[in-house]
DNA sequence: AAAAAACGTTGGACACCCCAATGAAGATGA
DNA sequence: TCATCTTCATTGGGGTGTCCAACGTTTTTT
């Protein structure tokens, strides 16, 4: 029985059992693990995502990158500043559209991305270390559905 | 096969499938849902937790409250300022130990806590709406184990 | 040519998390 | 008793991730 209300149970324990609370905890743990893993490279999670997006969709404008990754344009500026300073991407004006910057991956960027992928995988392995492989698979599948920001279709 | 490295797969899609990424997304969604649910009361998640802790361990000092909930003393001050201003708790000097404040729940605090519990449950129901009841139970069980910050016993 | 949209940038805000230092007060032990 | 150590509440600061509003410039649309 996992009834939502059990008045006898301590209130704080109930909160600590809520998915929202657990998700916050687990996400924090993941952020910490990834932060430590990426510390060598001086990068963080958003850098990894943007670098990967640049690798995927080739030389591309910042706005398209933002649409792809879901990052705010404001934040994209900072992320790309960091990546550019680390010589992992180049940012050059687009001759065909003078509003745009063309973001392209450098050779260093590609190799760094490979390192980040390995480090990220390792951190995620540590994150799910408490689960068996089968449980991990199941957990990720369920988590993916929870993470999906799907509109509650009003069933037209 | 959920091998950690599949070079052909787009890099960003791989990142988006990482537990750390999904946890961040799902936690953000939960925070947003809870934030909207608690907006009426003018409170947020930490307020809920602290209010619940006060209800659980009766009139109690701030430090004990911090140990119970895991919140930083600095943040506890702000949270209690809010709760006190909303007349949900009282904060009075402890006669037996003039260092301490005695935090006690008011009648309004108790009824507000009940409302928050209902709102929290509802938000969490929306958060896990994509899952069947059986999946929900399984997900929460797995998530709880992932959220646990257990030391990797070095097997002494 | 005028209006609308997209682009990169800047400034600001919010939620949650964590650490360091301080003055006041209690606990400890020589 | 007196000095030391600890606890308490508070203040000040930092860091990550997310999001919104506005601006000047440039391209597209009408």
From TrEMBL, chains A, B:
It comes from Streptomyces klenkii. It holds the Pfam family MarR_2. GO terms for biological process: response to stress. Residues 16-148 form the HTH marR-type domain. This is MarR family transcriptional regulator. GO terms for molecular function: DNA-binding transcription factor activity.
């Amino acid at each position: 029985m996992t009834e939502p209300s059990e008045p006898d149970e301590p209130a704080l324990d109930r909160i600590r059992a809520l998915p929202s609370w657990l998700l916050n905890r687990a996400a924090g743990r993941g952020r910490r693990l990834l932060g430590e893993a990426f510390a060598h490279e001086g990068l963080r999670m958003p850098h990894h995502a943007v670098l990967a997006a640049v690798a995927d969709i080739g030389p591309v404008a910042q706005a398209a990158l933002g649409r792809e990754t879901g990052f705010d344009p404001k934040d994209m500026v900072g992320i790309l500043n960091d990546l550019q300073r680390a010589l992992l991407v180049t940012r050059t004006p687009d001759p065909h559209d003078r509003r745009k910057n063309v973001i392209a991956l450098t050779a260093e960027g590609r190799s760094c991305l490979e390192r980040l992928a390995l480090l990220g995988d390792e951190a995620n392995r540590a994150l799910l270390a408490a689960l068996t492989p089968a449980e991990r698979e199941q957990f990720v599948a369920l988590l993916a559905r929870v993470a999906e920001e799907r509109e509650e279709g009003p069933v037209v």
